[in-house]
Amino acid sequence: MALNVDICIRGGGIVGTTLAVLLSRLQLRVALISNSSPTTNQSTRVEDIRAYAINAKSKSILESLNAWPGESACTEVRQMQVLSDSGEMIEFSNSLQLNALNTQDSTPMSWIVEVPALEAELAKALSLSNVQHITHGYAGAELQEIHAPLTVICEGSKSTTQQAVHSFTERISYGQVALATHVKFKDPHAKHRGVAYQWFNNSSALNTNENSNSEPTKEFEILAFLPIGGREGNTFAIVWSTTVERNAALNHLSDADFTDELRKSSKEFFKDLVPVSAKQSWPLALSSAKNWCGVFSPKESWVLCGDSAHSVHPLSGMGLNLGLGDVWALYELLLSKEKVNTSWRPLNDLRMLRDYERQRKLAILPYVQFIDKIQLLFASDYPLARLLRNKGFKTFNALGALKEWTIRKAMQAAL
Length: 415
Ligand SMILES: Cc1cc2nc3c(=O)[nH]c(=O)nc-3n(C[C@H](O)[C@H](O)[C@H](O)COP(=O)(O)OP(=O)(O)OC[C@H]3O[C@@H](n4cnc5c(N)ncnc54)[C@H](O)[C@@H]3O)c2cc1C
Known about the structure:
Elements: E1 2-4, E2 7-10, H1 14-23, E3 30-34, H2 38-43, E4 51-54, H3 56-64, E5 74-77, E6 79-83, E7 89-93, E8 110-114, H4 115-128, E9 132-135, E10 145-147, E11 150-153, H5 160-164, E12 169-185, E13 195-204, E14 218-228, E15 235-243, H6 244-251, H7 255-265, E16 273-275, E17 280-289, E18 293-297, E19 300-304, E20 310-311, H8 319-339, H9 350-379, H10 383-398, H11 400-412
Parallel strand pairs: 1-10, 2-3, 2-11, 3-9, 6-13, 11-19
Antiparallel strand pairs: 4-8, 5-8, 6-7, 12-15, 12-16, 12-17, 13-14, 14-15, 17-20, 18-19
Helix pairs in contact: 1-4, 1-8, 8-9
The structure holds flavin-adenine dinucleotide.
Flavin-adenine dinucleotide is lined by residues 10-16, 33-35, 50, 52-53, 154-156, 159-161, 178, 180, 239, 282, 306-307, 314, 317-321, 323.
């Protein structure tokens, strides 16, 4: 049986679900198509181990949907330490001097949000909305025929619908895989105190294969320790971006050997840690779609949102924040259309969708370029790159104003 709606959203990840709930507040009939049933989600689906750094703007969007998880699953980041391979450190903290009167800003730099908790809150908000939620991909279910003037593709970076509409995407592999897991302090009294850490290591590979006689190779890796479990927590979500080979080796290590490698890569910063979860891995690529909108037919258009349109290295914790920026831009566009009653412009109007494409490409470009340059600078072993890395750390540290600007930008990113 065919279903007629105003907007069809394909992909029930965080971006697609947030958009569906937001748009259902407008006078629009919205359908969300996801590829797993609610029962599959709860019983057989493997829980995502990741915890995302979420900025203040993204937080306010999720709060407006009542989808912000409780304190134990959202940890405030009060300080961040970024360390280079030569031991230089840049320290960021939220205690910015705002003006001549030395007013202190007590807003956290970001929040580390556990993905399963956020997904559960969004599922709750979805069930309370009037979105028509259609799931497919489980036994016996037929994919309903859906007609909508506008389809929003939120299927992530492996979108089949995006491939079907031939939207060309430039994808460059970083040659790295991100390993995610959780570790906690062995000492029951130790706490993370809301401090996040990130190491940019470009050194001889630590040989994880005991039987190998081969020479150590040069390797670039980024290791992040993100505080989770709330203000009084003692657990870190780890994101460890390494070469494919090192990722495979790390995945096969015993718990003791794994924490030993972690100790070495964090330059002995944390000596006594224990793994408390499984390990999961994601291949990393920089991708960006050339065209973000187009037509299925004269009456039906499509537009991209989130990772279907762009993906970046997780080193900056920006991917989802940029995706939620897309969501908000699309929502505001349709809200203003509703307010000024521009009904002469139908939802499939390509000029309107191109405005959104232009606006988002411009907003995202500086972040994508910045993240990419940082990754390239640290991945390079040329002496000049090494010099720039280390001089750069020193100079950046000395420039208080630049540091404050960087923190502000990261907190408000791309909306
Ligand atoms: C290791 C790692 C750490 C990260 N850390 C951060 C961070 O700290 N902060 C941050 O902002 N970002 C982070 N990111 C980026 C973040 O994961 C992504 O930007 C975000 O998940 C994108 O959301 P999305 O909904 O667009 O896509 P996805 O999360 O990929 O969701 C797409 C959904 O669509 C579904 N789908 C796919 N095809 C179909 C189909 N044909 N029909 C129906 N449904 C379909 C999928 O099953 C999935 O549910 C990180 C990424 C990685 C890999």
